[in-house]
Amino acid sequence: MQCFIRTLMSAAALALLASCASTGENADQTATDVTEQPGVTAQPGQEAYSYAYGQAPGTYDSYDTSGAGGGQARQSWQPGQPGRPGQAMAGGSVVSADRIVYFDFDQADIRPEGQAVIESNARYLASNPRIITQLEGHTDDRGSREYNIALGERRANAVRQVMSAMGVPPQQIRAISYGEERPAAGGQDEQSYALNRRVEIVY
Amino acid sequence: MKSIEKLFIGLVLLIGMTNFTQAQINLDITKKVEGGGIPVAIAPFGGGAPEDFAGIIAADLQRTGKIAPQPPQASADYSVAGQASPGGSRGYIVQFQLKDAQGGQLLNLSFDVPANQLRPVAHRISDLIYEKLTGEKGLAGTRIAFVAGGGGAWYLAVADVDGQNPQVILRSGQPIMSPAWSPDGSRLAYVSFEGRRPQIIVQDVYTGARRVASAAPGINGAPSWSPDGQRLAFTLSKDGNPEIYALGLGSQSPVRLTSNGAIDTEPVWLPDGSIVFTSDRGGSPQLYRIGSGGGAAQRLTFEGDYNARPAVSPDGRYIAMMHRRGGRFHIAVLDMQTRQFRVLTPGGTDESPSFAPNGKMIIYSNGQQLKAVSLDGANQQDVVLRGVARDPAWAPYSR
After folding, report:
1. Global pTM?
2. Cross-chain Cβ contact A142/B309 below 8 Å
3. What is the mean pLDDT of residues B273-300?
4. How many CB pairs under 8 A join A and B?
5. What backbone torsions phi and psi does residue B244 show, to the nearest 5 degrees?
6. CB atoms within 10 A of CB B328
7. For tag attachment on chain B, is the N or C end more exposed, with fewer CB atoms within 10 Å?
8. Contact (CB, 8 A) for B372 and B383
9. CB of B391 within 8 Å of any CB in chain A?
10. Is B205 an 8 Å CB contact of chain A?
């Protein structure tokens, strides 16, 4: 019975969160986590839990703050090790090499090999108008985090322009920038930096 | 007898030091004696309270860079002694005295507190001593917000400024960025990618309640509070490229303040209502200033090839920033009065500076850990937290 009530409360909190997130209005959004219990898995789709100061379940040490993924480790990525091409992870899914466009340092210009990647994907999208693609722009981790968000968007927009020129309608393309927040490779070396300066064509 | 007493005090200090190692604050006694600062001898507190008062106070005072804590028997300009014992109406009575070398009493106070307030009271005592001896407001009782984790699990957390008592107030499966305290210290604005799109969210720290402030198409980034706490400035790209906007908290429609084909981002308010931000309109990222309603931008930085992420001191005199020269990122500060430009840190991957509420220290990140540096660069500190910590924001005094 108690468990049932807990499930109900959890569902209500989720619905509230979902409604606010989908409208994006300035509505009051109370997402305080009243249901979270040790050993209870988070609801699928619920990505964020807020807590009043001092009320989070468990101590700070019980959370994985290592930066390695909080238990949902991304298989291709080990801290301190460079990643491999074609193994970039977008939100937990593998993006294959033929959907990744790489960039030079601090640049958003499309290189010839990137042009070929965009064109092959653009041809596919143009002939499959029901498929919506998300262009995810990324940077290496040098420089300001917020400036890198802007730089990642500039890269995604550069890819979008090539796709549009090839006839992919605007409503078929979405763009988002993660800046340096979702690196494909964790190393502090030129090879890792190069792998991280990228746009992933996700669909 | 004397040597046994010494040994005992040494032991107490050692126990204190194991606490420090946990917070990675090294209190090297010999260094302390040689180091600068006002010498203050601190005796272990008797009374059996479950906190090492002398250790906490010594670490707090050491961190100021202006006071040099000494062992109790050292000859020092000032001495601190106290007692923390069960009793009073709330659980514990904590009392302490600060005396000068002649034995004159400068402070003599007692506190009646519950067990969970023992550590905050130790910080309060540190601040009282610091304020008495320097005439400046102390920082020992302040807090910091920061982003922890990454790679699949992100956290927004608030900790005491010594890195102790970290508390998670948000956890997410998507990135969290750029926390900013409201001027009254009750709320944090930040960027959250939950739902796989960036939004600016305002969260009440003490209830956990949240409100979406902006979820426009494209970038929603870099929130900053106006000095009166009534408006937020942030970055939106809904009109094609990143521009600075300001939003009244009761309003639904942000007002655009910049209009330029380049990247404009990272707005922060000066006390007079004008806004400093990062722009690459001149070719490389540099800091610019506009009026409260926008208008012509005045370039502020000319040193190095990359100046970004400005932070404004509480009195508006200094602007801290990340500054690149020779391929390395440093924390630098621009004196708005004299136009003097100073590089404060040895550099590497330093980023995200934030001023202490007394304007004397700057907290920043090297992308993995938090560090602090004094405004003159002389005092450098590590604030070590378990795991990855970045994007620090030093809370204001008010709470």
Report:
1. 0.85
2. no
3. 97
4. 214
5. -90, 135
6. 16
7. N
8. yes
9. yes
10. yes
